[in-house]
Amino acid sequence: MENIGLVLEGGGLRGVYTSGVLDAFLDNNIEFNYCVGVSAGVCNALSYISKQKERNKNVNINYINDKRYFSIRNLITTGSMFGYKMLFDTIPNDLLPFDYDAYERTSCRLIAGTTDCIAGEGVYYELDTIRDKYEIVNASISLPYISRISKYDNKYLLDGGIADPIPIRKSISDGNEKNVVVLTQHKGYEKRASSLNNYAKIKYRKYPKFIKLLNQRHTIYNETLSYISKLEEEKKVFAIYPSKPLEISRFEKDTEKLNKVYNLGYSDALDVMGDLKEFMVNKNFSKQ
């Protein structure tokens, strides 16, 4: 769809909800020419754009308890709890092959958000191909405290959700008059200040602007939610929220809970599918 963007929040393993939503989109032929995401949102977008239904669900649920994928051992040996080789080599090339050709044939632009630790601001990269750009994806999903800082493009990068947790403004600035936004927190959620802010002063002492961002993270997030609500009222955004609190952490390892979250995402998307299709074609859309 021209001038309609798809905006994907991150949220670690809460992103399994987004996997369900996007699989419902695939089953109903909902496509976009533009997508921007951060963290887990980028990973979900890759499988959605390559039209590999359930791939991202299976990546997370099948391997979350595999120590090569996510473990303290990885953190000790590599500086990151998520295993780089497992994520960007073993899984996409062997275990759950990624369809690189299908991805590169698509007309959809995918923009990945990262956070520049030195500048203390968001940096965005277009993933026209993924074959040699996994470091960008790695940077976008590199959660603070449990991930090493990624070095790319002469920058020091971490989780895109720090600077821009729901990159709606990026989509608008790139020319999308209307946007579909998929969130991983229920409507009415309000983020609180982190209890790790004092630790951040020690761990990231070389990056004072990044520390400031971490301290402001809850304020940035809550302000972005308010902005999205305003755009919903103006009929410029169609937001899909979890219909109930997900009650899992971003590091959830219980596969039964993760399956339930995926199924909730799928069913929530189906519940609003009629309204969504109307929003995408009707300039005078009015949500029921």
Question: What is the gist of this entry?
Answer:
By secondary structure, the chain is an alpha/beta fold. The protein has 13 helices and eight strands. Helices cover 47% and strands 14% of the residues.
Q: What does this protein look like?
A:
The chain has 13 helices and eight strands. It is of the alpha/beta class and 288 residues long. Strands 1, 2, 3, 4, 5, 6, 7 and 8 form an eight-stranded mixed beta sheet that branches. Strand 5 (150-152) and strand 6 (155-159) form a beta hairpin. Helix 1 crosses helix 12. The relative contact order is 0.18. The mean pLDDT is 95.
Features:
47% helix, 13 helices, single chain, globular, 288 residues, alpha/beta, 8-stranded mixed sheet
Question: How are the elements arranged and paired?
Answer:
Blueprint (H helix, E strand, L loop, with lengths): L3 E5 L6 H13 L6 E5 L1 H10 L5 H9 L8 H7 L5 H12 L4 H6 L3 E8 L4 E6 L7 H8 L8 E3 L2 E5 H4 L4 H6 L4 E5 L14 H7 L4 H26 L3 E4 L14 H17 L1 H9 L7
Parallel strand pairs: 1-2, 1-7, 2-3, 7-8
Antiparallel strand pairs: 3-4, 3-6, 5-6
Helix pairs in contact: 1-2, 1-12
